[in-house]
Amino acid sequence: MNEIKFRALSNGKLYQCHACNFETLNALVDVEGYHSPQWCRVEKFMEYTGLKDKNNIEIYKWDKLLNPIEKIVHLITFDFGCFHWGSIPVIALNQMDGKLIVHEVIGNAYASPELIK
Fold it and tell me: What is the CATH architecture assignment of 6-116?
């Protein structure tokens, strides 16, 4: 079973969520300069796929994954009940024990939009 967790985009920065309120679009996150987590307004929530890339980085929806062998970059999306890398279900990618062997996270659609081109 996948671990359920989310990342949040707020004011152009990505934060790991401690708690989420999807109705009010707020998340409890660690904010620089505060000793305890703070509630902040969220622009986008990104769900964890349950997989890690070849560098052991967690993969979330809207992350950009690179296949360095084929030099192809696609966004991670969620369609038809599962996460996809382009049109390929993420579970079909070459992996071992929940870790992708070839692919690596190179950015996020919102935190690094210049990488979409």
Answer: Roll (2.30)
